[in-house]
Hints:
Blueprint: E1 7-9, E2 12-15, H1 17-27, E3 34-39, E4 46-47, H2 51-62, E5 67-71, H3 80-84, H4 90-97, H5 115-121, E6 127-128, E7 136-140, H6 143-148, H7 162-165, E8 172-177, H8 186-193, E9 199-205, E10 213-219, H9 227-235, E11 240-245, E12 248-254, H10 255-272
Parallel strand pairs: 2-4, 3-5, 3-8
Antiparallel strand pairs: 1-2, 5-7, 6-7, 8-12, 9-10, 11-12
Amino acid sequence: MTEGLHQTIDNTVISGTNDLVADLMALGLAKGDGVFVHSALSKIGHVIGGPRGLIEALLICVGENGLVGMPGFSTDAYDPADVLEIEIDPNIRDALRAQVPGFDTHRSSASGNGSVPETFRTWPNVVRSPHPTSSVLLWGDDAERLAAHHDATGWATGPQTPWGKLRHRPNMKILLIRVGWNRSSALHAAESMAPHRRIKQRHFKTGPADAPWINAPDVADDLGRLFPLVGSAFENTGKVSLGNVGQAESRLCGYDDLIVFASDWINTRNAADGVPAL
Length: 278
């Protein structure tokens, strides 16, 4: 493979797939690895091929025995009033709720997670877990098994979900490309394991057509309160590799390493803050 060169023109870093492969390997990604990716594509610079260029680089790095994952969150199953966070007259709200399409593994957009996951969603051989709001997108070794069971009625990021099961996949890693720890969905999985966890109820439609609506338990949105702090504390352990992908500051760490550390850290902090144990 041609060595990456990263041409810079008028202060814009231009990265092709070869350049990105070189950066990712220097960061610590290797053949056979699993990697769950959160990314801000525009921060890399100009990527030749756009999202496709980055996705192809990731697949080359992990190889045919590797695994690549991304978030597949969708709002297709939510009440419009909840999505917009507004009060709506009950009569109007019922009419709007009747038109909620419900989640579809093939058609529900993942664009709210960024252009890279949305492109990845339709990539050949990518599988999507069936959770109506909190699905994962997986390509590669064992993807079908890992994505197969994602119960809508339980904790969306709990130990028995793909988010929890990924921690047991050998050499599974988390990659943050110019996004903060607040974007790392695995931290929700970490809090799901903590006895002292912040909780909320999700309200959503369980499927298309006349599928029922349910309330399901989940960990609460962090809103930048703890996740940046626990991410910083984890970096201080020395278990996070730092480097650039293109011109984007990036972080790579072990998936299970993060979850074990963060679950204990979040549990201790929540207990101190008076969050009751479940």
